[in-house]
Amino acid sequence: MDKESYFINLFNNKFIGDDACVIDNYVYSQDAFFEDVHFKREWMRLDDIGEKAMLVNISDALAMNAKPLYALLTVSMPKNITPYEMEILSDGLKRAAERYGVKIVGGDTVSGPKLDISITIISESKNPIFRKGIKEGNLIAYTGKLGTVKKDLGRLQRGFKIPRSSKFIKPVLRDSFMKKAAKYMNAAMDISDGLFHDLEKLSRANRMGFEFFEKIPKAIGCSGEEFELLFAFDKKYLPVIMGISKKTRTPLTVFAKAARKSYKNRCRPHHF
């Protein structure tokens, strides 16, 4: 067991184990976005940093079939940050929040050595979708195209630049697809740690493995921070799901089916 999973298990209770916690139709989620862990200042504009920090948090709510409503924002900023830089950072945070109807209602600011952002999203859902719920024979699919984030991260780490349109800088959330397809899903989550890592989470939650239709290269399966949707559904709904994919212009790959077998993640841990 990796250290992240070990630490989470120390707080084991019925609310932990999904992209978000569901209590009485309210959905609570939180993700961190820390300098020199998730990004470097020289890689991204300040407004892009703020926008991505908000988007990766909203992604968890959407994957749970929840409507994000409010955000609590905690920011640690270096002492030498200027008022102008703070304005640019806030522009990105507000831009993403407004796009999804989220109101920033509070939080905290502290001084620290680096720019670190942590956001709590409060959402609402009458029919949340959990990671648990996969049945034997269910088809497994993901939205979008995977692998470009890992490729662009590699370029940044080698000192090259990438376009602002890169999914590493601007994640693409699949809210339109999710709204229409959610009622046909048995389980879902967003791909934050990489397809192979997140399949391990689904496997653990459902005590289920997967039969892959084709071999998936590690360059695709180990690409983290994609923030695409990963979900399971009954094969009878395949025509409906594909129709929604076409109608919402959402690329979709159906790559495996659930089976009673073991599953082994082929990627190194992203955390520690």
Textual characterization of the structure:
It is built from 8 helices and 10 strands. A hairpin with a 2-residue loop joins strand 1 and strand 2 (26-34). The N and C termini lie close together (11 Å). The chain is globular, with a radius of gyration of 18 Å. The model has no long low-confidence stretch (mean pLDDT 94). The protein has 2 domains: 19-124, PurM-like, N-terminal domain (60s Ribosomal Protein L30, Chain: A); 139-259, Alpha-Beta Complex (Phosphoribosyl-aminoimidazole Synthetase, Chain A, domain 2). It is an alpha+beta fold. The protein has helices at residues 3-9, 46-63, 83-99, 148-157, 175-181, 195-206, 218-221, 238-247; strands at residues 21-23, 26-34, 67-77, 103-111, 116-124, 139-143, 185-190, 209-212, 229-233, 252-259. The strands form 2 sheets. It has a 5-stranded mixed sheet, covered by helices on one side. Strands 7-9-6-10-8 form a 5-stranded antiparallel sheet, with helices on both faces.
Topology at a glance:
Blueprint: H1 3-9, E1 21-23, E2 26-34, H2 46-63, E3 67-77, H3 83-99, E4 103-111, E5 116-124, E6 139-143, H4 148-157, H5 175-181, E7 185-190, H6 195-206, E8 209-212, H7 218-221, E9 229-233, H8 238-247, E10 252-259
Parallel strand pairs: 3-4
Antiparallel strand pairs: 1-2, 2-5, 3-5, 6-9, 6-10, 7-9, 8-10
Helix pairs in contact: 2-3
